[in-house]
Amino acid sequence: MKDRAHDDVMAEVFRKDPAYAAELLNSILEDGDQGELLIALRQMTKAFGGASQVAEKAQLNSTHIYRALSAKGNPEIRSLSAILKTMGLRLAVQPIAVAGMAP
């Protein structure tokens, strides 16, 4: 049996279950771990045809995608929104529940 890279396995999971991908991204955003978010977005980019294809659909340069989603990346909201849109997702703002306060 041939071992597969973790990123390849996750890309396949995201292709098969886009709802899980959205749940995972929301969970990561809730925790606020940017590094983890960028890893998941790189895996999702792979699931949606790779950086070149996502860049073309998002009307961005593929080099920009690689840089934005790199380990040291810091994507602008505009780029992040464009990338997510190619995956059928979008950014959203939700109220957070604080103990003793109504949302």
Q: Any chance you could write out the topology, listing elements then pairs?
A:
Elements: H1 6-16, H2 18-31, H3 34-47, H4 51-58, H5 62-68, H6 77-86
Number of strands: 0
Please state the overall shape, judged from the principal axes of the Cα atoms.
globular
Structural category: mainly alpha
Largest sheet: none
N→C terminal distance? 50 Å
Using only CA atoms, what is the Rg? 15 Å
Describe this protein's structure.
- The structure is a single chain.
- This protein is mainly alpha-helical.
- The chain has one domain (6-86).
- The chain is 62% helix and 0% strand.
- The protein is built from 6 helices and no strands.
- The chain has helices spanning 6-16, 18-31, 34-47, 51-58, 62-68, 77-86.
- The relative contact order is 0.12.
- The mean pLDDT is 87.
Provide a compact summary of the structure.
With 103 residues, the chain is mainly alpha-helical. It has one domain (6-86).
Task: Give structural attributes.
mainly alpha, 103 residues, single chain, 62% helix, globular
